[in-house]
Amino acid sequence: MGIRTLATTLIIGFTLPAFCQIQIKGRVIDSKTKNNLSYVNIGIKGKNIGAISNADGSFSIDIPQDQIPDTLTFSLVGYDEFKELILVLKSKGDIRVQLDQKSTQLNEVVIKQHRLVEKKYGIKKTGIIHFVDGIFKKDDSFEIGQVINLGAKPVKLTSVNLHINSSRIDSANFRINFYKYDEEENQPTERIIEKSIIQRHAIRAGWLKFDLVNYNIRLKGKIFASIEFIPENKDVQQIFYEIKIGGSSKSFFRKSSLGQWVRPPHHYCLFVTALTDKKAPVEVDDVEPSAALVLQSDFSKEPYSIFVRLPKDYSKESQKVYPVMYHLDGNAFFDPIVNSAELLSKKRRIAIEPIIVGIGYKNAYVMDSLRGRDYTYPTSLPIDSFGISGEGANFYNFIKAKVIPRIDSAYRTDKSNRTIMGHSLGGYFVLYSLLRHSNDQSIFQNYVAASPSLDYEDNYLIKQFENSPSSTNNLKKARVYLTMGELELENNKPNGFYKLSQSLAKKEF
């Protein structure tokens, strides 16, 4: 098993002097009135380095040494962006940034007055799985949002609504933003409403409503509606809000001002209300993808849903065989992975579009309870607090004996090019599969483990890889892609990710 790991490259990039920083501080004001401007987004565009100005316009932002040649952007609704080289700002000491009010020419919107009714657009139902999230830093904002399809005709927005899972003692400030949504790039882009919509609300369990009636906002088509959490500059409780697992809705978040938008596997329980023609079509609720087939394992009574997406040219190329990408948590990840594959295909970044196979359960809620059982091996320690666990070997055999043969018999697959992909506990199972690579004639050749739960069972997998032989001559090579989020690598502390990547880098199978 010749392992080629990209983790070493990621580690080197992370341990360079990114932790040597300079600080830029000052105040943001209106260029005409000289009034202080609060809640200005300050950051390096597309990078997770940002801050937000305080109520008095003051700000402070730390810039890593390797980002000093970049440009700092100041952005506020209703104002033109201000950009300046960080090197220039560094030389000025305590600075004053002046923003010019934006002059905008609005296109005329004609609304034919039929009988109007208020309708909901977005994710309108809540589930039973909850997600803890909130402000990552005391000096910067955090933003979440949902792509909303308002239909072909303009509608007047009356509210934005987010489902809060539990109450907290104090209230919080929020800013509502609306952006264009670029379907080709699958990203939110520039703001489309230059109105400052900042509201303070008590945090109570249930639907949190942001009233927009008096803002006279009229939009149509696919837009991106977001809620920005304004920092309090003090220690406060995180805000708990509900998410939905599965379905084709598109949610995004960014954890810093002007940072990169990231699409999570879940969707926020977020919808807008709008006044529209009574005859306008009703938006269909988002649902999980339909399984192509259902398989029963020998070790479990639960049915497994198998989701399949074929390449666009599959029916045209009758003799062509295709690589297969198997991924875990199919109920949650199938639609996002398909969407990403389509985008990469459009940009011609993949030579041959793969057959995508999601391995899931009856529904997302069953998935949440059973993945801990199927993706782990051996049985967990009491400290891990798993209800059921340790069936990874049986689940692996189920994939080998039933899933792969069924896919190979139904579709034209390249049997020498299979990928297994997983996240968190799914990433743990991917690495467990890699550990078994030498005993199973290479049923997978490519392994993608995102944020694997390496501390499971007292770092069992790390110890196994450390003690495995350094070379075996009769095995095919394997390709490994191992990733961790930057917060998981915070402060460059020695952890399982480094130990594992070092072990893999030494292997010459």
Distance between the termini: 4 Å
What coarse outline follows from CA principal-axis ratios? globular
Q: Sheet bearing the most strands, described?
A: 8 strands, mixed
Task: Detail the poorly predicted runs.
Answer: 1-19
Helical/strand content category: alpha+beta
Give the neighbour order of strands across the main sheet: 1-29-28-27-25-26-24-23
Topology, number of strands? 29
Q: Specify Rg, calculated over alpha carbons.
A: 25 Å
Helix content: 10-25%
Q: What percent strand?
A: 25-35%
Q: Estimate the mean pLDDT confidence.
A: 85
The total of helices stands at 8
Question: Can you characterise this structure?
Answer:
This protein is of the alpha+beta class and 509 residues long. It has eight helices and 29 strands. The chain has helices at residues 7-15, 86-90, 330-346, 364-374, 392-410, 425-435, 456-467, 496-506, and strands at residues 3-5, 21-30, 41-43, 50-52, 58-64, 71-75, 82-85, 95-99, 116-122, 130-132, 142-149, 155-164, 172-182, 187-191, 197-201, 206-211, 218-219, 222-229, 240-245, 251-254, 266-268, 270-277, 293-296, 303-309, 322-327, 355-360, 413-423, 446-450, 478-483. The strands form six sheets. It has an eight-stranded mixed beta sheet, sandwiched between helices. Strands 11, 13, 14, 15, 18 and 20 form a six-stranded antiparallel beta sheet that branches. Strands 9, 12, 16, 17 and 22 form a five-stranded antiparallel beta sheet that branches. Helix 6 (425-435) runs parallel beside helix 7 (456-467) and helix 7 (456-467) runs parallel beside helix 8 (496-506). The longest helix has 19 residues, at 392-410.
